[in-house]
Amino acid sequence: MNRTVRDLVAAARARVREIGPRELAAFREAGVPIIDVREPDEFAEGHIPGAVNIPRGLLEFEVDGHPAVAYRTAEELSHRERPVVLYCLSGGRSALAAAALQTLGFVSPLSLAGGILNWEDAGQPMATPAMPRAHATRDAQLAPG
Q1: How far apart are CA 44 and CA 33, in angstroms?
Q2: How many whole angstroms separate alpha carbon 24 and alpha carbon 86?
Q3: Could you give the angle at the alpha carbon of 44 between the alpha carbons of 86 and 81, nearest 5°?
Q4: pLDDT tens column, 113-136
Q5: Which of 1, 12, 133, 136 has the highest count of CB atoms within 10 angstroms of its CB?
Q6: pTM of the full predicted structure?
Q7: Domain map of the chain by residue range?
Q8: Which CATH class is domain 5-142?
């Protein structure tokens, strides 16, 4: 039987804990790492204040310092026993990302239900940086000439 992306997202959502904007705001106030798993151009358009951008396609590689990310481990992903909140546009990518982190041994990966759209609808603050985290720059440096 073939599965669809909707099936994968539904399975991930059933497996991980989703939180709402108010709970995310409390985690943010407590200093819990907030990771935006959208692409850098999406992040640059606006994000949750204090969030770091680690695109979904690089997330797992940044847990253990894989060669694909120049052996770098993201500080926000260096404590598997602590909570970490992930979000995307609508909650699908972040649910998949949280499920992947569970598989890698993270005790409490959380996903923002409804993504940044839900965050904005709840009237929560947004930030627009002058420059997003430079994954694209780092990736360009690693690419052969």
Answers
A1: 18
A2: 10
A3: 20
A4: 999 999 999 999 999 855 444 444
A5: 12
A6: 0.85
A7: 5-142
A8: alpha beta
